[in-house]
Structure formats: C-alpha cells, structure tokens
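Morning, I've got a small favour to ask if you have a moment. I'm working through a protein record and want to make sense of it properly. The fold is given in discrete form, as structure tokens running alongside the sequence. Can you walk me through what the tokens say about the fold? Thanks so much in advance, here it is:
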Amino acid sequence: MSTINTATTNAAITAAQSSANTAVQEAAQSLISGSTGNSSMDVNSLVTALVNAKTAGQSAVLSAEQTNDTTQITAYGTLSAALSALQVGVASLSNGSLQSTYTATSSGTGLTASAGTGAVAGSYDINVQQLATAQALSSTAFSSTAQLGTGTLTVSVGGNSAQISINSTNNTLSGIAAAINSASNNPGVTATIVTGSDGAHLVLRSSATGAANTISVGVSATTDNGLSKLAVTSTAGTSASTIASTGSLAWTQTTGADATDAQSITSGEFTSGAQLGTGSLTVSLGSTSMSLSIDSSNNTLQGIADAINGSSSNPGLTASVQTNTDGTQSLVLTSNTAGAANTISVGVNATADNGLSSLGVTSTAATNTSTISSTGGWSQTTAAQDAVFTVDGTTVTSSTNSSTSAIAGVTLSMSATGDQTLTVATDTSTQATTITNFVSLYNSLVSTFGTLTTGTLSSGSSGSAGPLMGSSVVNSMQNALASIVGSGVKTGTGTVTLAAIGITLNADGTLSTNSTTLNNALQNSPSTVAALFNTTNGIGTQLNNDIEGYTQTNGTIANATTALNSSLQSITDQQTQLTAYIAQLTSQYNAQFTALNTLMATMNSNTQYLTALFGGANSAGALATAKSG
C-alpha cells in the first residue's frame, strides 16, 4: 500500500472509532437511567453502540482498503490508456513507415495516385491509352408482353455461370430479367429492360470491368417462341500475342508480347550453314518495318541475323542464331521492348527458294477488347476491356482502372485517357505531423504520471496526492521511458538524439519541439531522421517494446491489477466474516441486556411495592398506617 493510502486508512480508522465511542457514551445513559429506576434502558441502541465500538476499527480498515484498491485499479487503467495511446502514436516511428511517407501528384486530371511502402521518389510519364470497362449487351427487340417459350438459360460471366429456369410464369422479357437478377448464384450480371421505338430490349451488364469478364447466354429451349434469340457468345480479349507460321517450318513463340514481357520467337530447324536462297525479307515490329535484300553473301541464318542487327532501319529487335542439340540451327528474333503491341512478323519474297520461305511468320498483337457472335441480333454496346497504359514507355494492362503493381509502392487510379507526369516525393509535412503528434502524446503521458503519482502537474504547480503515489512499479516505468527519449540512439559513429531534429527534454520531463529545426531536418537530413526512428533500436522501437511490456496481457500493469483484485477478494471475504461476527455479537448482547433490562424492571417494581408497603422517607407506608390504627 502506498504512503498516501496508509495515511487515509489511519484517518478513517480514527474517525470511525471516535464516532463509535460517542455512540457508546450516549447509549450508556439508558443503562444508568434504567438502573436508577427512571425508565427501562434502550437495549437496541446500547447493543448497536457496543457492537459498533467493538468492530468499527476493523470495518473502517476494510472499507478504506477496498476504496484504495478500487482507486488504484482505476488509476492503472488510466495509465494503461495513456501508454497505449503513445504506443499507437509511435507505430509509424517504429515500423519504418515514417520513411515511406510520400505524396503522389499528377500533372493533370484523370489520374490520381497514392504512394506508400516501397515507393521511390521520382517522376514518371504515364500515358493512359484505354480505360477498363464492363461489358454491356443489348438483345434484339421483342414485344414487351410476348411469351418467348420455355426452357433454360445459362448466363455466364467470365468463368462463372448460373442456370435460369424459364416457364410460363417468367417467360416475358421482364420476367427473364427479374429471374436473372434474383438468381442466388448470379455470376455478376444485371439485367434491365430498355424500351425503344422498335420494342423492348434485354440489356445485360457485367458487374466487373476487364477483358476477361465477358457475358454469354446459352439457350436450351423446350418450346421456342423467340427464346433462342437470346443466345449470345462473347470472346474475351487476349493478354498476350499469338503467331502463325506462313512457311513450311513452324515458328514457336518462346515469350509472348504482353504488358510486362518482350516477344521472342524461334524459327524451325535448318541445316547448319545452309544457303536458303535469294530474295527479300520484310521484318516488322508492331507497325514499324524494315526491308532486307538477301543474296548469296548473306543467305545463311547467321548472315540474315547479321543483316537484321546491322540495319540502320532496324525497328527495335535483335536477331541471333541458336544451335540445337541435333546440330541444326534456328533463327531467334527478340523485341527490345515489352508491350502487347510490340509483335514481330517476317514477310518473305523469294526469287530463289531453298528454305527462305520457311522464315515467314505473322504475329497477332494482344487485344484487350471483347467481341461477340450472335444469330439472334445481339449488339455489344460496351466492350469488356482492360485498362491499357504505359509507364515510361512500358505497356501495362489492368482489369480495373487501378493498379498497385505497375510502380512499386504506388497505387494508380485512372478515370480518363491522356498523357501526364506523375511525381512521387517525400511527404515531409505528414512526417512532421506524425513526429509532433508523438511529442504531444508523450507529454500527455508525463502529465498522467504526475497526476497519478506525486500529484505535481507537468507545469510545476502542485495538486492533490495521486492514488499511485510511492508506487515503485510506476516510478520505474516513468524513469525507463524518460531514459529512452533522453538518451537517443546509438549508431556506428556515435549517438543521435532528438535534439538533432529540434526536440528537447524539459526539466519537468516533457518534450518541446522547434518546428523550424524539425522541418529542416526532414528536408535536408533524412538520414538523421531515419537513424532516430530505425526499426532496430530507434526511439519509436524502444518505446514500443517497453510499453508492450507494461500493457500486454501478462505485463506489469496486468500483474499489478491482478494483485489488487486478489486484495479486493480477500477484503470481501474478511467483510463477510466480519458481518457474521457482528450478527453473532449482536445476538449475544441482545440476550444479555434484555435479561438485564428485565431484571432491573423487576427490581424497580419490587422497590416501588416495598416503598408503598413500608413507607419511604416521607411516608409511613400502608403497613405502618395499619399498625397505628
């Protein structure tokens, strides 16, 4: 128990005992009065006063200790809350995220971005060429009241599908739309009815954007009055290039042209050193091409590779000769640039052909836009397509209009096409706010320590003594945390302190911030800030680890609270025992003083009788009168 709580307990005992003694003195008057024949004594008051006098001290001790324990538990809860608030405040100072605070600003509209962990300050050219869209299909026109027959519709979006049973209760266009929308396993499509001058149209929209999220409707009609016209097949856009050989030897695509990869294709196998004939080759990369004249001086695979690599009009690809395990050779063509549009094709015009025509190959670039086929008159009002954009010339696709992978640590959100610049920079303003918030929370904790312990406020003025005054546990916490913020962080070359970024320790234990020095350090000395708040032994990490030890389930505060709760339980047990003792003592005293009261009443009655019979000081009495007569 702390010093202040011991004094409070002693004062309570003294007051209770004094009050009990006064009550005994007052109750004793009834005993005196009863013994002198004035009246019967007040047994209840006398018993109550005597019992209270005997138990008041112990009752006061238990009550005071109960109050003290409860107050200390509340105080530890207040301290735990202040510690936890500081722990939350230093989270970004201990996990390294402070150094990963960036702003991401675009030069125009239609592109927003946010930057976080993993981002790198810099400038990026972003060209949004195509936004991701969700497919929408519109059926041929029907009469709004026409019953289209019965059967089953299989509605698919991407790889998911649902079967819709069509019968006489729902085989109108509006009934079919309602059945699709209410299907428990709806694959992600909404159905509406749009009525035009030509009639009612069933319109289906995918809930998700992206080239892969295409809609198809399969129809199995048992009775057909137009139901079969609802059949439609959508073909998703492809994300990588494909090739087709035009010569007798097949080319293979070893790497497809897509958002992140450059295309690489390998020809069929030729005899090593064979002369393939004469003519010309047209080698294309995307929409750019070059023409090569092939004659006896360069008509081997190596000669052709050298001619491609040495051409001044090379569109951006590299040629090499690969020797296979069986000794044959193949021509390998590789684009120098990734991107779905950067595909390679080779056209051959042979005047003398000894295998030259076998080098012919056509590449089809990836497409991110869906197509449909329908015999019932469906039209695609909006294609399912991916977003397509470039980052510093590299093509990227996304099924949505956002991307978290194109630039490390940066989330892009696109709402319009266009070319603009994205600038990622360190967010020193947010960093300063985070650090000053830490200072504020630390100062709040210092104030809480003051209120709960010595009663001296952080400003230096005195207040009432706190409920945890004298607690060695709390004093140890306060000293440990003060040591962390005052000592700084050891580095390989010395020690870096908070003063280096404008934060100083005051005499009363609080911290003060010089905003000018702090902002200067954030802008011009980020390495100092990084050292102070590193994830290994930085100030934030040290504070977080210490606070965790205090506030965790089996931590210092939990153990202290458990001990106080055990003390409260013991007090409750003792109060129960005291209550039983008071009841026993009350019963005993009641019996004793009731008997005494009865005895004194009998004695008084006898005294009155004898006085009347024999006479008192001023009366001869009835017996004396009789004798005289």
Notes: The chain is about 40% helix and 25% strand. Residues 34-38, 456-461 have pLDDT under 50 and may be disordered. The first strand starts at residue 102 and ends at 106.
